[in-house]
Design brief:
There is one protein chain. The protein is an all-beta fold. It contains no helices and eleven strands. Strands 2, 4, 5, 6, 9, 10 and 11 form a seven-stranded mixed sheet that branches. Strands 1-3-8-7 form a four-stranded antiparallel sheet, with no helix packed on it. A hairpin with a 4-residue loop joins strand 7 and strand 8.
C-alpha cells in the first residue's frame, strides 16, 4: 500500500497563503487521480481539489476554493501540491491528500473513490 505524507500545514491569518505538499512512498503507477479533501470539526470530509496523475494533468477544484487554490503535480518527484491563497477562517480543517487506483463506480468528488490517504495536516486560519 502506498504511503502518503502531507506537509506544510500551520496557523495563518486571514488573507495569507500556505502551500501543502504530499509525497508518496513509491510511484503511484496505477493512479488516475490524486488530490485533496478536507474535514472540519463536526463536518463530513469534503472535496477540495484533484488532478489527473497521467496525461494532460487536468485539474478540478471545489467551487469554494476556485480562484484561491491551485493544485499541481511533479511526476518526477511523485508529489502533488496545493497552493492556497487568500485563506479564510472557513478554510480551517484537517487537509488530507489521496490517490486513487484507477476507475471505479465513484466520482473523483466522492472520498470513496480514493484508496490511499495521508494522515492529514492541520490548517488553521484565524486572526
Amino acid at each position: 500500500q502506498v504511503q502518503l505524507v502531507e506537509s506544510g500545514g500551520g496557523l495563518v491569518q486571514p488573507g495569507e497563503s500556505l502551500r501543502l505538499s504530499c509525497a508518496a512512498s513509491e510511484p503511484t503507477v496505477n493512479s488516475a487521480y490524486r488530490g485533496w479533501f478536507r474535514q472540519a470539526p463536526g463536518k463530513d470530509r469534503e472535496f477540495v481539489a484533484s488532478i489527473m496523475w497521467r496525461g494532460p494533468g487536468s485539474s478540478y477544484l471545489a467551487d469554494s476554493v476556485k480562484g484561491r487554490f491551485t493544485i499541481s503535480r511533479d511526476i518526477a518527484k511523485n508529489t502533488i501540491a496545493l497552493q492556497m491563497s487568500d485563506l479564510r477562517p472557513e478554510d480551517t480543517a484537517v487537509y488530507y491528500c489521496n490517490a486513487d487506483r484507477g476507475p471505479d463506480q465513484f466520482s473523483i468528488y466522492d472520498p470513496r473513490h480514493y484508496a490511499d490517504w495521508g494522515q492529514g495536516t492541520q490548517v488553521t486560519v484565524s486572526s
